[in-house]
Specification:
Number of strands: 0
Number of helices: 13
Order of helices and strands: HHHHHHHHHHHHH
Radius of gyration: 20 Å
Number of domains: 1
């Protein structure tokens, strides 16, 4: 067994590559999947199946069965992350380009800081405040009054994408203290199952079953759905879960500003999505703001760690 803090370098690089590229590419996969598949049923099928696979794998490896309290917590977190978070992203990509969707979702770290400030009275440091202000300036550049020329966009979808990133942030923060299963894979699996069921219910309520024409489903949509299940949920999340256990949170969090860059580039290279000067400037501002926030948080954690080490040394 590899000791924590000393994992094989090649394995760490491979895991980061998986999280960077696979999660960044899911926005393009969603774009193709929603061409002939209804968004909420698509997302519901993805997360229900992936959650069942992860849960079964975790239980087979000896994880404790989830209790009623575990399922209640998973339902709350899963609803915030999936129906109100990722589900909105999938729906929005029927109306906006995949690259723009990724950039709007990249505002999630801004909401984490603001929610911590509001709920936990954790006042952000000046550099973080500067990052938040810069980030929202980037969002304004991206979805300001004038539409981005050549970029498929929609004001309602853009607004809901920002709201989805806030919901994802709220779910992530709530999950820190929620009574979720101890085994990480089982915890993720139960959240996906609960969220997937919620998404399927949204699809039923929206009448998507009546609009689903299996005969008209394209090969691209089927491949997109399969890619999301296998590489986005199973491989990507497994790599992320392992990284969280072996490297610092600040290093893992770098995916937040790499994913949108990957998404924009893939959307341009494969789907022919436009990259205008305004989109490029907004991307640079938003990604730079996220990097600023994550870098400052990394320094804060390192500083706290050094203080703890010094205190223990003095006590010894």
């Amino acid at each position: 067994m590899v000791e924590r803090g000393h994992p094989p370098r090649a394995l760490v690089i491979a895991a980061f590559a998986a999280v960077y590229v696979l999660w960044g590419s899911t926005y393009l996969a969603i774009r193709y999947a929603v061409q002939t598949l209804p968004p909420f049923l698509l997302a519901g099928a993805r997360f229900t199946f992936a959650g069942a696979v992860l849960s079964a794998f975790a239980l087979a490896r000896g994880a404790e069965r989830p209790t009623r309290a575990n399922w209640k917590a998973a339902a709350i977190v899963g609803t915030l992350l999936f129906p109100l978070g990722n589900g909105i992203v999938v729906w929005a990509e029927t109306r906006v380009d995949s690259g723009m969707a990724a950039l709007l979702v990249a505002s999630e770290p801004f909401w984490v800081v603001l929610l911590l400030w509001w709920r936990a009275r954790v006042r952000p440091r000046p550099l973080v405040i500067a990052g938040i202000v810069t980030g929202f300036a980037g969002l304004f550049i991206l979805i300001g009054r004038a539409p981005v020329a050549g970029v498929r966009a929609d004001a309602l979808a853009a607004a809901l994408l920002v709201g989805a990133s806030c919901s994802w942030a709220a779910g992530s923060l709530y999950a820190r203290s929620a009574a979720l299963p101890r085994a990480p894979l089982l915890s993720a699996g139960t959240q996906m199952i609960a969220g997937g069921i919620g998404l399927l219910a949204m699809g039923l309520a929206a009448g998507e079953v009546g609009r689903l024409d299996l005969a008209a489903v394209s090969v691209k949509s089927i491949i997109g759905l399969g890619y999301l299940v296998v590489f986005g949920s199973l491989v990507g999340f497994s790599a992320y879960s392992w990284l969280v256990s072996v490297v610092s949170p600040a290093r893992v969090a770098t995916y937040a500003y790499v994913n949108p860059v990957i998404a924009v580039l893939l959307g341009w290279a494969i789907a022919g999505e436009a990259i205008t000067w305004r989109l490029a400037i907004a991307a640079a501002v938003i990604v730079g703001a996220v990097a600023l926030i994550i870098a400052d948080q990394g320094r804060s954690v390192a500083s706290a760690s050094h203080r703890t080490t010094d205190t223990r040394a003095e006590a010894a």
